[in-house]
Each structure stands twice: as structure tokens, then as C-alpha cells.
Amino acid sequence: MRPRIFSLMLTAFTLVIVLGVGGMLLLFWLAGQNDRRSQVEWGPRPEVLARAEARRLARLYQRNGAWTGVDLRLRAIERELRAANLQSVALLDAQGRVVTTRASVLSEPPPAQPAFSGIALPGEVPLPVGRDDGLTVRSVPILLGREQIGALVLVYSGTPGSQQGAGTLARGILGAGLALATILIALAAFFSSRISTPLRQLDAAARSMAAGNLQVRVQPGLVREVADLARSFNQMADTLEDADRQRRQLTADVAHELRTPLSIIKGRLEGIQDGVYRPEAEQIAGLLDKVELLERLVEDLRLLALAEAGQLALHLEPVNPARLLDDARSSFAHQAEERQIDVRVEAEAVPELTADPQRIAQVLGNLINNALRHTPPGGVVTLAVRANPSEVLFEVRDTGTGIAPEDLPRIFDRFYRADPSRTRSSGGAGLGLAIARRIVEAHGGRIWAESMPGQGAKVRFTLPWYNTCV
Fold first, then answer.
1. Of 236, 317, 363, 424, which is the most buried if we count CB atoms within 10 A?
2. What would the DSSP string read from start to end of 235-300?
3. Distance separating alpha carbons of residues 375 and 357, to the nearest angstrom
4. pLDDT in tens, 80-115
5. CA distances from 238 to 225, 425, 464 (A)
6. 470, 450, 468: which is closest to 459 by C-alpha?
7. Rounded CA separation 304/296 (Å)
8. CB 123 within 8 A of CB 151
9. Pairing of the two strands 380-387 and 342-347
10. What's residue 81's pLDDT?
11. In the chain, what is the greatest distance between 2 CA atoms, to the nearest angstrom?
12. What is the CB neighbour count within 10 angstroms for residue 116?
């Protein structure tokens, strides 16, 4: 079973978070262990203040040369430590004798020197001495340079400061690590959902599209790559919907184009069968014209289908562009004469190119046929060709009615005609320009139209000099 992307991302984020937080906790623990070994600096407030006071007393002793005035300093120490469960504080000299003492709880003065004997001896660094009554006795040496000149002895409620301080630090680090891990995991779940939710929406949309709903769309997410994927999906959906619309339209257009000649043929044959018409040469010629029209339409549809599928066969050979224009003018000379339109050729000295002459002649024929149809009597249709560095440019322009701007982008679509009535008096089936575009593209060229209403139209297409299309 394949895991979900949300589970994968959440697992990856969680591993990174756990490793990061674990490494941070290990670093702090090692630092604390190292510091605790190097110096007994952990402790509650009485011990921290006692070490600071020991340095002040050393400076006082250095200034006075004796412990003169030390009582005032001890009163200040007592006031500062009273809130930290201080029981008593005493100052010992270098021989371990009590210089002065202050008691916060005891109403009687503390015993004389023997109560502190063994706590601070000359030249020794005193160690803490535990008590069975819940009190802790802590001796802080007073040093002047390298020489011990005395000791500051504290008696307070609680356990020795080094153990209490280390435990407090460990609990603080552990609590901070757990809180940080919780926050980071919540953020990982949030960002993972930001990625997985749009992907689930894409999956649902794809399933809906597979079921036939081509109108489904998705909203782009906040992540750039996921948003790009959503936009690509929407573009694919638009393309599929447009293709489906064109397929439906093609079916309707083909049915429309075939219905009219078939209806005429059927009516004429029924009339002959019923005796309304006689099977004379005129009737048969009319039926043959309609059959020829159907045959041409079917051939155009076949050619267009082959071109759109990329299966249109081209028989390439060297071709003279000017000769193609002359042949095209000759083919439409009679039709142009009937319409009283002048067909001219403007051909430069263009070298031969490689192309399928029959297919290019078909393109020119479709373009000239459209130009003649939309040019009034007395107008001019001009066929031109000129050489460019990498291609040959063909042009068919007329002095007719022109093409409306809203029709220009669609004139090369199959079955499209500017006349909404779709009568044949104003045009054919609407396949000529579509076939012309496919043939030009099969040669590796391009085709486009330029026009202003009332000022005629120009249809141009290009062909590369050397074509290797098959």
C-alpha cells in the first residue's frame, strides 16, 4: 500500500524536528555536565549571593587589613537572603574562628567556634556538610589572591545547591524541548496539509473528469509547484472541453452539409419514381452535380482528417514558385472572366523550393476561390511571391469586402463561415481554409490573414526552402 503524501511529509518533518530538538537537549546537557564538573556554580539564591559577598568581603579585608566593619556587611547579607529560607550566616577568619554571625531564625546567638570547627580550616577549601534536620550548611571560602583569609558559612533550609540547580536546569531544558517539539510538529502538520489538500482536490477533479464532467476545475493552492499543477490541469480541462465542443460541432456541421444535397437527390428520385419528373438528361445531370458535391465534401473531410492526424502524405520535389502562381491563374481564368475580375501575378525571381506541387496548388486554389467569391465585379485579385532568407512568402490579396475583425481569428477553423445563415450562395462548406492551413503546416510553414472591412483581404503563407516532411 502506497503511503499518502501527507503522511510522508509529516513523517519527514517529525524526524527532522525530533533530531533537531534531541540534538539541542543533548548539547545543553553536555554543557551543564561540563560546567558542573568544572565548578560548583549551580545553586539556589543563598549560595549565589554568598559567593558574590565573599568577593566583596575580600576587597573589604584588603582595604582595612582586618575584619573591621564587617558587621554592617553581614546585616546587608542577612536582609538579602531572608526571603531564601536563610537560618544563619557567620564569618570565620583564617584560623576557623568566628568573627561575627547573624541569625535570621534563632533567637539565641549561635554557639561559639566549635559549632563550625572542621568546616573551614586554614588553607583548605571547605566542603558542604549535610544536616539531618533538613538544613544545609554551606561554606564559601574568602580568597585574597591565592591565600584563604576566611570563610562565609550559611545555614539554610533545603538540599545542597548543586543538586537542586542541576535538577531544575534539566527539568527546564526538557520542558522547553517538549514545548518546542509540539509547536514544530503542529506547524509540520499545517504545512503538510497545505500541500496534500490541493492534491486531493486534483485527484477528485481528475476522477470527475474521467466520469465525463469536463466542466470541473480546481483552485490553485498556495504552494507554487502545486498551483502550477492546478493551472496545468485547468488548461487541460479547457482543451478537452473545447475539443469535445468541436467534435460535437463537427458532427452537427457534417450532418448539415450532407443533409441538403441528399434531400435534393432523394426528392428528385422520388419525383422520377412517382412520374412527376421524367428521367431526362437534364434531371440526371442535376443529380450528378449533387453527387459530385457530396463526393467533394467527403474527400475534403478525409483530407482534413488525415492532415489533423499527421498522416497526410506529401510528395516532395523541386518546385518553381512563379510557375505555381501562373498555373493557378490559368486554372481560374474562366471563372474570373465570368465574374469580371482581373487576376494578376507579381512574381520575383525566386529560386526553386522543395514542396508537394499538387498540395500547394490546392492551397492556392482555395485561397483564390475565396478571393473571387468576395470580390465585386471590376475588382482585382493579386497573386504574389517573394523570397526571404529562410523561406518563401506567398500572398493572395483582393479588393473585396474584407473580413470583419471578429471573424479573422476563426476563418481557418473547419466549417466556419462569416455568413451565419450558412447558405451556399455566400460560400462553400467552410473547409477550404482549414485544409489550406493543414497543408501549409504539414510543409513546416505558417498561414495567416490580414484585413480591414471594406479594404480587401490579404492571406499569406510561408514555406521553408528545404522541406523534409513526409
1. 363
2. HHHHHHHHHHHHHHHHHHHHHHHHHHHHHHHHHHHHHHHHTSS---HHHHHHHHHHHHHHHHHHHH
3. 26
4. 666 656 778 888 888 888 888 877 544 344 443 334
5. 20, 35, 33
6. 450
7. 12
8. no
9. parallel
10. 67
11. 154
12. 23
> Residue 437's closest CA among 382, 366, 377, 372?
366
Q: β-pairing, 391-398 with 98-103?
A: unpaired
Cell (9 digits) for 336: 474570373
Q: How many residues are recorded in the chain?
A: 470
Report CA-CA distances (Å) from 87 to 71, 90, 104, 106, 398. 17, 10, 5, 7, 116
Nearest Cα neighbor of 448 from 458, 438, 456 is: 458
User: pTM of the full predicted structure?
Assistant: 0.50
Q: Which amino acid is at 466?
A: Y
Task: Please say whether the beta carbons of 25 and 31 come within 8 A.
Answer: no
**Cell numbers standing for residue 416:** 466556419
From CA 64, how far away is CA 87, in angstroms rounded?
28
Residue whose C-alpha cell reads 574568602 in the numeric block: 142
Tens digits of residue pLDDT in 395-436: 999 998 888 888 888 888 776 665 554 444 444 556 788 888
Phi, psi (deg, nearest 5) at residue 126: -65, 150
Tell me how far CA of residue 362 lies from CA of 39, 56, 303, in angstroms: 100, 111, 11
For residue 118, the one-letter residue type is: G
